[in-house]
Amino acid sequence: MRAPGRLLLLALLAAGAAGGRGTPRDTLACSQGLACRLLDTDMLCGMEPPGPGHGLALAELRLVPALRCVEPMACSPCLEARLRLALLPATGEPRRPVPSGIPGVEDGGEGGQWSPVDGADSSQPNVTGLLMLSGHAYASSRCVAVEVQAPLAPALPGRPLGWVIFQCFEAPLGSELHVTAYTNSHSHQRLNQWQRVPDCSWPEAQAHVPHCQVPRLQVSPGPKEVVVEVQGAAVGHSYTLWLYHNQSHSAGGSGRTVTASGPMNYSLPADEVLPCLCLQVWPETQDPPRATLCPFSHDTKAWERLWARSQLVLHAGGQELTCSLSAPCDLPAELVPCWQPEPTGPCQALPGLQQPAVGQGPQEFGGLRPHPNLCVQVWSGGQVQLTQCLREKALPGRADDLLLLERRGNASLCALERGACTPLASFTSTGAGHPGLLEQELRRDVAEGQCRQVWHPENGTGVVLWACPLHKYLRTRWALAWMGVLLGAACLLLLLLLKKEDVKGWLKSLRADYGSEGPLRGRRALLVHAAEPVAERAACALTAALHPLGLAVAVAPGGGSGVAAWGPLPWLHAQHRRALRDGDTVILLLSPAAVAAAHRWDAGVGAMPGAGAAKSSPGPRHGPNPNDVPNVAPCEAFAAALSCAVPALTAGNGRYVVARLEALVPAVPPALRAAPAFALPSEMGGFLKALAGPGRRWGRWPEPYVAALAEGLRRAVGE
């Protein structure tokens, strides 16, 4: 302990005098020339014990932080009370004999006989006084009585006698303690002082108080979870573990707290591990020291998760382009505006417009006006992590606009294309660049304000970007190209007219193909569909459209004599045999119910013995046995048709065409994939060619007729 001045050469005295009730942890020390002892270390405050009350006065009270230790590493904080004593003026008469009746001179009272004071003659008169110390905290109070003996000479009244040091008043870390000291003399002098007990920022508390010893954090990553281990925590003490995202733009980081007593392990899912995830642990004390660890800042997978959860949003509502980058962590990235004429093509960075990503609020690109070809890329670590474009927004400008760069000072223009800026004099582009005339038109439009200014620097220096409508310049050239095509067609027609015989044969074939009798005259077809409303509407629409072409169509169900009486199966078998014999076309119309019947047919055949081999290797010579055809209900027309069609298809007999309603049926069932299939109404032209057969050369069907037929079928299905 340090003593103020030379008189504070402390000598710790044992508190084991007779009658003392001090605890072994309380100590009392006096400076040289004084004798003191503890009378009571836990007396009732306000009830002072009887004792001598002559001559001692309090000159100063000082409170000093200290530690009370049971073991070297098991200490608690306290305040040490240091009292400077002096003589009262009334007792300061020099060398006046002391009457034998003064208590404590010949008899030590309750404390026993005093031994002579060091350096003083045994016949020298002494003065004895009683000191009371009280310490009051928020939830506790304690009072202590101390008896002090001091020589009368050579001290003068008001001169200091020395120091008495009591150790100590305990209180919680960081709390306030009110200490009062007074004597039992007639002056009733009191000294009061408020003092805060040190918290864990005191170095000696960090080294010796268990509550102030911060545990260590150990992280063990795994494939599915990360284990956080709190090491070095004292058993029985409470600690808080905090997991949070460290963000510079966030005022108070939100996170997850876990409270535990003593050492602990905490498991964190690997999906929640991000580069900015930090861990912090501290003991449950006031203003505790904290241990912080951010172990994932260089984790590659954590960065991949962060970019997957980040989002770039472009705002084009005002006159300037703005964007917002949102992410759970700070992103060391750069925002780079670029120009992308084609959705799958490269995006060329605009010079001088890149800027660092700051925070999560909106960021402006000063002077950059929105255009459908503008995009913003997020670059980090030399790679593009995020890209967002304005292509889907309704903005002025076209995707085929040409981007020109004008350098201020020399007024030169160049075209930004394929990562370079090509001067207009030598500008070439696949089907777009036209030196000479195009260069003059572009310069004129830029000068007259016909091109749209995309970017203009705020300070008026540097470069300016212009978006010029390239389609305007190409329109004239396309007109010239069409004129050349028409001229070539006229020459070809003239050449054909010179050969009359060939022209006559060509016209005759046209009359035969597209005559009034119809291109399918003499052909017959059997149209089979399922018994459901959408299939019936589609069958009626097809029959009505094919009849003017000369195609005779029999529809099942819904046609044939005696169907209601005999059921669909005998009639269908008769129609099917006739179609095979006469070379007619069998049209299988696939609707949802028809597909379900085909799947049930497949399941029925596959469940029979020997059906697996036939199913695994279909061919004209390995067809299923007719006896293996599954039984169907008599009124299931499409299932009955499958009983006839699938064996013939497998054997390669007959002419079959599958018509799939593409809006309702995504694919053709496996049992019918041997026949040519067409998705209606989009493949109506191919369907008509299949009905015409390979024996006739129809060429290209008239597009207006095919479109009208497709539209009629589309309306029938959509009703």
Short descriptors:
5-stranded antiparallel β-sheet, Immunoglobulin-like, single chain, alpha+beta
Question: How is this fold's topology laid out?
Answer:
Elements lengths: L10 E3 L13 E4 L4 E9 L12 E16 L2 E14 L38 E11 L4 E11 L8 E11 L5 E8 L6 E7 L6 H6 L7 E6 L3 E7 L6 E8 L9 E7 L2 E6 L7 E7 L7 E3 L6 H10 L1 E5 L6 E5 L7 E6 L8 E2 L5 E2 L5 E3 L9 E7 L2 E7 L12 E6 L4 E6 L2 E4 L13 H12 L3 E4 L7 E6 L1 H28 L2 H14 L10 E5 L4 H14 L5 E5 L6 H4 L1 H15 L2 E6 L1 H15 L4 H6 L20 H15 L3 E7 L15 E4 L3 H9 L10 H16 L1
Parallel strand pairs: 31-32, 31-33, 33-34, 34-35
Antiparallel strand pairs: 1-2, 2-8, 3-7, 4-5, 5-8, 6-7, 6-9, 9-10, 11-12, 12-15, 13-14, 13-16, 16-17, 18-19, 19-23, 20-21, 20-22, 20-24, 24-25, 26-27, 26-30, 27-28, 29-30
Helix pairs in contact: 6-13, 8-11, 9-11
Description of the molecule:
The protein has 719 residues and is of the alpha+beta class. It has 5 domains: 186 residues, Immunoglobulin-like (Sandwich); 88 residues, Interleukin-17 receptor A/B, fibronectin-III-like domain 2 (Immunoglobulin-like), CATH 2.60.40; 80 residues, Immunoglobulin-like; 71 residues, no CATH class; 204 residues, no CATH class. It is 23% helix and 32% strand. The chain contains 13 helices and 35 strands. A hairpin with a 6-residue loop joins strand 18 and strand 19. It is elongated.
Structure summarized in a few sentences:
The chain is built from 13 helices and 35 strands. The chain is of the alpha+beta class and 719 residues long.
Strand order of the largest sheet: 1-2-8-5-4
Low-confidence stretches: 1-23, 91-122, 505-516, 559-566, 606-634
Number of strands: 35
Strand content: 25-35%
**What do the pLDDT scores average to?**
75
Number of domains: 5
Structural class: alpha+beta
Determine the N-to-C terminus distance: 102 Å
Helices, by number, come to 13
| Helix content bin | 10-25%
Apparent shape: elongated
Main sheet record: 5 strands, antiparallel
Report the radius of gyration as a whole number of Å: 52 Å
